[in-house]
């Protein structure tokens, strides 16, 4: 089971509709996601009839400037849904290859159905974050909940969190999301990620629909601990989500880049490691650059700040100018405190 806060970025491959209603493609996607480095494969659990109704009037026809415009909601979801009878095989395959498997339920029946597989977490989609009864139903399972916030304002997010907490669920993560498909990179607004963490005191991550992998990598630098990205075996097979999904090779590149970003972030430290301490010997320090006899004053002509770093720190340069040498000093000698009267 997931536990927040996470000690490293948790990377989710979103299968969504990228199976073309072929269970062999779905099973191969589970294996490929594992090979690409994903920590989890995520499903969506609904049917056309649990998420909408079969109606062709203006309310149910998509016309919001999306890649799905012209279809009815029922037509889209009939094309996109993952058959419920596949779930057991997908959960078993995930366990076999060593990758987490969980899902986004879209109604009460989906939650009840998924509980038999003991998923490590539940995801609430951006379009369902307003469905407080659904969130409360999920919260009552006691499983960690990941809330996508693509359509939510600050109050909506607060309401969803409150629904979890009043049902004694504290294991809550929020995903910054732009609900456009695909999402323009300039609408990512990733600076929201640290603000969400500070404002809502939850684990925070990213559900990304932009093209490419720039946005997920940048999000890690801003504190994202969960990355969710649509995954597809081969974009040429098409499907509702193919346009903004990553193939196995692209996903693997993203995982590698995210892991490198994590390494680069490291920890807050002002201590020097052994290599830095060694290299510090090549930094600047004060050296005698003209022969000096005992009793002679140090001047701008006979001492200088130069490399390497075996002498007194240059920060003491003006403190030393005008003082006298207490011994003869040869050109090329590092200046030390014991050389000064």
Task: Throw out a few tags for this protein.
alpha/beta, TIM Barrel, Type Iii Antifreeze Protein Isoform Hplc 12, 2 domains, two-stranded antiparallel ribbon, elongated
Note the topology.
Elements: E1 10-14, H1 23-36, E2 40-45, H2 48-51, H3 73-80, H4 87-97, E3 100-105, H5 108-114, E4 122-124, H6 132-139, E5 145-148, H7 154-165, E6 172-177, H8 192-200, E7 203-208, H9 214-221, E8 226-230, H10 248-265, H11 274-279, E9 285-288, E10 303-306, H12 317-320
Parallel strand pairs: 1-2, 1-8, 2-3, 4-5, 5-6, 6-7, 7-8
Antiparallel strand pairs: 9-10
Proper CATH architecture of the largest domain: Alpha-Beta Barrel
Tell me, rounded to a whole number, the average pLDDT. Answer: 95
| Cα end-to-end separation | 69 Å
Order of helices and strands: EHEHHHEHEHEHEHEHEHHEEH
Give me the count of strands: 10
Description:
This protein is an alpha/beta fold and 341 residues long. The protein folds into two domains: 222 residues, TIM Barrel, CATH 3.20.20; 66 residues, Antifreeze-like/N-acetylneuraminic acid synthase C-terminal domain (Type Iii Antifreeze Protein Isoform Hplc 12, Alpha-Beta Complex). Helices cover 32% and strands 14% of the residues. The chain contains twelve helices and ten strands. It has an eight-stranded parallel sheet with strand order 3-2-1-8-7-6-5-4. Strands 9-10 form a two-stranded antiparallel sheet. β1, α1 and β2 form a beta-alpha-beta unit. α1 packs parallel to α4, α6 runs parallel beside α7 and α9 runs parallel beside α10. The model has no long low-confidence stretch (mean pLDDT 95).
